[in-house]
Design goal:
The protein has 503 residues and is of the alpha+beta class. The chain is 29% helix and 16% strand.
């Protein structure tokens, strides 16, 4: 065990002496990638295999050092304190009442504390976020702020440090936006962050950075700030996200699209889809251009031409074309994580929740990148949706309707591409790699819970206890994450599903 790991272990063990137990949790130890908490044996008493490095070639991520790695650190729990005048807070409430999809910003001040540093931002911007999950942060419709007697509600926010002041002082270690997301439908307080963390461990550099944080909002005139509890803190996917990865994308000045429900990438229906640029209206366009919007017409023509090629090419023509415009290996390894984690509300099954980036504005000469997004409905939060009825046991080779959403299914028709995908799935579940393997995953989640457990009780009086349960509205309520002995442990069920693949 290296020096850093020893220090982390010591700190964690001290912290554990002050925390209680949570239902269904069996072990609380950090995952250092080299030791098992039961003396090197799994729950059956068999010896664990020695860990070996994953077989994939990881990209150089030194570009994130000191910036994204500092802000989004899964081993720390930053504090974010937002201050807003009563007038501005009431403006936010009125905007929500006027339009439940409002993207209107209000002025605020923000403080960020982490690792002994305190950063203050005067005149930042705050707005609500979420699609079906966008909520009113206080009271009921028509009500204004009730000083010192507010009815607070969890909701998603976007904190834009540079919204009103365009200078370097309004960036946090070169980060300007923080997506602050409550753990909606996830009483286990881990699903989305686990997925983003797994993407990074697996070398998927297109995945956004994320971590935990604690959030307070103080409305001027209140005696105390409202404590909103433990939140997710996620990197915004925008032109800044692309610019940070410009060496990997090949260029950072071109076309980034947010793709919502109905985004099939199918040429046969794209002309009936809403295609627009981000106009700050809060409208939910199927394909929404987030960057390079001054060249919208060319970007739209490129998108349509891409779907035409994707839909109409076949055989060797499709095989060679997609390889010329896309890093197929990166795409299929991305999708292996997607399917392993049980992400059914995705592109392939539900034509939803992803971004795409074209690194050139040329209609035919570009590289296309798929960017994973929105992973709260995962890890056993299952639903009967299109092809998928059980996110743990669904055949990974038939995750969606290829006739409707062609990209992934068409790739898997070719043996060489299918091998990349199946190999990636097996690499994820290989115990030696400490990636998706159940014991490594349990260790990882337990170490996070040890860090956040004392802080989940909050002033909204919502989600005040960590529980190893999927969402109540899901169709399979018996999935568990932290019970290694359960026949419904999601990591084990999914691993068996992957092992049964007939390639």
């Amino acid at each position: 065990m290296n020096k850093v790991a020893r220090i982390f272990l010591a700190i964690t063990l001290v912290a554990l002496s002050f925390v209680g137990c949570v239902e269904d949790q069996i072990i609380i130890l950090p995952d250092n990638g080299t030791e098992q908490p039961d003396g090197g044996k799994d729950d059956t008493g068999n010896e664990e295999p020695e860990p070996t490095p994953p077989t994939n070639d990881y990209p150089d991520t030194s570009w994130a050092a000191g910036e994204l790695d500092w802000v989004f650190d899964m081993n720390t729990l930053p504090e974010i304190r937002i201050s807003v005048t009563e007038e501005q807070w009431n403006t936010l409430l009125k905007e929500y009442d006027r339009d439940g999809n409002t993207a209107a910003y209000i002025h605020c001040d923000a403080e960020f504390r982490s690792k002994g540093e305190t950063h203050n931002f005067v005149d930042a911007g705050l707005r609500l976020r979420g699609n079906t999950s966008r909520r009113r942060p206080e009271g009921n419709g028509g009500e204004m702020h009730k000083r010192d007697n507010a009815d607070w509600h969890h909701c998603h926010f976007m904190l834009n440090l540079r919204k009103y002041q365009k200078d370097d002082a309004h960036e946090l270690h070169n980060v300007r936006k923080l997506h602050l997301k409550w753990h909606k439908d996830d009483r286990a307080y881990c699903r989305e962050l686990y997925c983003y963390d797994l993407f990074r461990r697996f070398g998927i550099w297109t995945a956004a950075y994320s971590s935990y944080c604690r959030l307070w909002i103080h409305v001027e005139g209140d005696k105390e700030a409202a404590y909103y509890g433990v939140y997710e803190m996620i990197e915004a996917i925008d032109d800044k996200y692309v610019k940070k990865r410009k060496e990997l994308f090949g260029d950072h000045q071109h076309n980034l699209w947010k793709c919502r429900w109905g985004a099939t990438l199918n040429y046969n229906d794209i002309h009936n889809s809403s295609i627009h640029y981000d106009d700050d209206s809060g409208s939910n366009y199927t394909y929404e251009l987030k960057s390079n919007i001054e060249n919208f017409d060319a970007a739209k023509a490129q998108l349509i031409e891409f779907t035409k090629n994707l839909t109409q090419r076949s055989g060797k023509d499709f095989h060679d074309w997609i390889a010329s415009v896309c890093d197929v290996r990166l795409l299929l390894r991305t999708y292996a994580v997607n399917v392993a984690t049980g992400m059914w509300d995705d592109y392939w099954n539900n034509c939803n929740n992803f971004y795409i980036y074209f690194n050139s504005s040329d209609k035919n000469n570009y590289k296309f990148f798929f960017i994973p997004y929105d992973y709260d409905n995962t890890l056993g939060t299952s639903n009967h949706c299109n092809v998928v009825s059980d996110s743990g046991r669904q055949d990974p080779l038939n995750w969606g309707d290829t006739g409707r959403n062609p990209l992934i299914g068409k790739l898997l028709q070719f043996e060489d591409y299918r091998t990349i995908y199946v190999d990636a799935l097996n690499e994820l579940i290989d115990p030696a790699n400490n990636l998706f393997y159940y014991q490594a995953s349990i260790n990882r989640i337990n170490s996070w819970h040890a860090m956040i457990r004392d802080y989940v009780v909050n002033d909204t009086e919502e989600d005040c206890e960590i529980k190893d349960r999927p969402a109540k509205w899901g169709n399979i309520y018996d999935y568990r994450l932290l019970d290694a002995s359960s026949s419904m442990n999601f990591f084990k069920v999914k691993a068996e599903s992957i092992k049964s693949i007939k390639n």
